[in-house]
Amino acid sequence: MTETLPLDGLAGRIAGGASLALPPDYSFVPMAAVRALVRHGVRDLRLVTVPQAGIAADLLIGAGCVASIETAAVSLGELGNAPRFSAAIEAGRLAIRESTCPAIHAALQAAEKGVPFMPLRGLIGSDLLRARPDWRVIDNPLAEGESEGGGDPIVLLPALRPDVALFHAPFADEHGNVWLGARRELVTMAHAARETLVTVEEVRPGDLLTDETLAAGTLPALYVAALAEVPEGAWPLGLAGRYEPDRDHLAEYARLAASEDGFAEYCAEYVDEDAAGLCAAE
Amino acid sequence: MNTETTALLIDVIAGMLEGLGRVAVGASSPIPAAAALLARERGGGRPALSLLGAQAGSDFTDGGRELFDRAGQGRIDAFFLGGVQIDGGADINLVGTGPHPAAEKRFPGSYGSAYLYFVVPRVILFRLEHSPRTLVRKVDFVSAPGTSPPGVYRPGGPYALVTGRCVFRFEPARGRFRLASLHPGHSLDEVRDATGFDFDSADDPPETPAPDAGTMALLRGPVGAALADVYPRFAAAFLG
User: Fold this and answer.
1) Domain for residue A245, yes or no?
2) Residues A185 and A196 occupy one common structural domain
3) Looking at chain A, which residue has its C-alpha nearest residue B95?
4) Model ipTM?
């Protein structure tokens, strides 16, 4: 049964030390919930970015909420490197599990299937393998004949099962079914995670699963532990089909977060008080 | 960068895509995207394109993994990668400089490179900054290696390296770059000084040809219009 909670109640379900899966900047990022996590002072999160992240991860890292991160990349896109992420790595304050986009997708798919690992091509000869002692190279047991020079080595990735998947979606219904449209990586995230928490722009009456057109893009409520209705919950990022990113605000973040003092100033201005009203005022 | 140089880079990269079936372009890659659009325009709709970062009308419906799944099946003929550092063996580093993990300077991370470099047949490396700090003898961290030993599954790999000064072609059998052409106004001596790795070259390499009037018309017309859908700021600046 999906619980409906206020934003702070939803964020309060994420305990210190939890592994937390977050979407990439182009897809349904739960920025209001991320700010709530910062206000709650959660510590030692182990982030998993699916497969990369931007301001959401940078904000959590800068605020001291994160002990480690498994990621293919953290960046502010056209605004450059993610400053708090880079500073934390350079200072040795943040443990990193280096990855590559398809490895994160594939390891989540292993978890959603309930199998212990997934094989993936590529990777052999990269320093990612050295940085990831949990990844194994085996000879393809199904190889036909002997390939030249070796037995067709292939990498095995252990299943990746985050404690919590957290994202923001356009709408859910009153039963807790959440519409995700074509954002299938979020479906995989939810299947793989122990529990999924979702903020939505709006909760609609009715049942999405009875509408054939909407059902195909719907995450059934059985995966969704709790929902919170948070209008503009992706701000300052955009929500595809709903609103555009607030590019001026993102540029201001990039400018301020370049220094520790500037980052503190940003938080005092936009995070410490619930920023939900700020975007509504625009 | 001026319009002439931008157009030249777009034109030379477009030439590398001619005759291919499908080309994918990553996010935040306006020049490769423009080159792919130009190639499609010249080819009458071929190669087909998948531009990441295009929101409405994106032809991906299976989430972030679909690009990689398509590439793994051989459905993508060309892709673009960059690098904080690229070395003479075409190893690329998107992670950081100095020791790992506590880097001297940390960059975003490897993205999909550690996979796509292996499975996409024609990977074009694009790095505008051509200097000894970007083109190095040996990368500090191998996000993806330029070549693999026999026996490692590798239908793909580096095809060319395009910089702000020149075009290199990669020769897999030698595991080295060969200078293919110098952009107008650049010399072989200058390129050698600006390159941290050793490469092969003719004594008198050709000049990268400037785009002709027909190409410029396409860039100002249909290519620019399509580009503006995904990269409005770049298109506006480039087209003036």
Assistant:
1) yes
2) yes
3) A73
4) 0.95
